[in-house]
Amino acid sequence: MRGEFTGWPEQAMDVLWQLQGEPTHATRERCRADRERLVRQPMIALLNEVADADPRYQDFSVWHYRTNSWWWQHQSALIRLGRKIEIGLRFSLDGLRIQGAWWYPDPGQVDMFRTAVASEGSGRELSAILNEVQKKGYDISGDVMKRPPRGYPTNHPRTNLLRHRSLIAARPLGCEEWLHTPEAVDRVLSAAADLDALLMWLVRHVKRAA
Question: What is the pLDDT of residues 128-174, one digit of tens each?
Fold first, then answer.
């Protein structure tokens, strides 16, 4: 479907409405073909166009269905930029949501992250990047320890960042008419540009663990 993204059809919302709550097996099977055609395939077409716009975005996955009803109600996808460093997209009745994430880290990656955060140059750079991302409406979250990690002073100027064992910046893109048009590609690319400095910092400093 490369080059054929025209937006999610309005009927995609009707399908997702039918899958709300705890849909029965019969309901899921009745909706399966329409959900594939109207919900999942447009996500694949969207990501093909995003990948055409930036070769860094060519490694992506669009999830199939799982047992849990949540996966039928939300169409998720991700674009891999580094080891455990990804752009995530999610389409649902709430519209489209994007996040930039370093999560589920390999052994050793958390230590790499903390070393970079503690370092004056790279640590200040990350703090400045996160400030800019928050100004653009992104929420910052992650797996955060209750206390600073061992080996770092409790009064370190970036102690809050040192407590992170993952880092996520996310925001909703909306549920307006553009979702049903090719404009969704530009919306995703614009949001990905918002996240670029953060994700590239992570790619540089949180590499594949040995």
Answer: 999 999 999 999 999 999 988 888 888 898 999 999 999 999 999 99
- Give phi and psi for 26, each to the nearest 5: -65, -40
Amino acid (1-letter code) at residue 115: T
E runs forming strands in the chain: 60-62, 75-82, 85-92, 95-102, 139-141, 167-174
Task: For residue 90, give Cα distances in angstroms to 75, 85, 147, 182, 207.
Answer: 5, 16, 32, 17, 26
Grouping H, G, I as helix, E, B as strand and the rest as coil, residue 154 is coil
Read off the tokens for 49.
């166009």
Cα–Cα dist 90/103, whole Å: 16
Smallest CA-to-CA distance from 191 within 46, 62, 3, 75 is with: 46
Are 123 and 116 in contact by the 8 Å Cβ rule? The answer is: yes
Q: In what side-by-side order are the strands of the sheet with 139-141? A: 60-62, 75-82, 85-92, 95-102, 167-174, 139-141
Asked if residues 62 and 17 have their Cβ atoms less than 8 Å apart, the reply is no
List, in order, residues 6 or more apart from 19 with CB less than 8 Å away.
27, 28, 31, 35, 69, 72, 73
Single out the residue of 161, 168, 149 nearest to residue 123, CA to CA: 161
pTM: 0.93
Q: Does position 2 have pLDDT exceeding 50, yes or no?
A: no
pLDDT value at 1 more than 60: no
In tens, the pLDDT along 162-171 reads 999 999 999 9
Eight-state DSSP code of residue 135: H
